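Shall we go through a protein fold together, starting from nothing but its sequence? Please make up or recall a protein chain and show it to me in full. Go ahead whenever you are ready, and we will take it from there.
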Amino acid sequence: MELYENIFIARQDLSPTQVETLAEKFAAVIRENGGSVEKIENIGSRTLAYLIKKNRKGHYVLINIAAKPEVIKELERVMRINEDVLRFLTVKVEEHEKAPSSLLKASRYQRDEYDDNARSELSDNEEESGEKFNDRAEKESD
């Protein structure tokens, strides 16, 4: 059996539960045809570089597969038919990474960076509004 990585983008209006169900459906197709799924990694919702079927965002999911080429053909046929899948790509690899994918690391980093920036902006705004309030109170007391 050969090793593959499959990544697909699901529509933005699906809930995370629906995305997991969709990934499990694809995993079942792989298993039914004699392949095995080593890992399913839900990368999360990300902004697309351009509109795809009127969607600005999409849910990214990575599946590590060990299977014969015929299994991959069947998986891609099922993905092509499914309306919830915007895009997919299957690549043959030498070995699967044991660590989380670089996409997952990047999305976590961006999310953490965003949270840190939001917190610092919030604290800056609170300080500014407190200073403005104190200035107004001093003017009114004069």
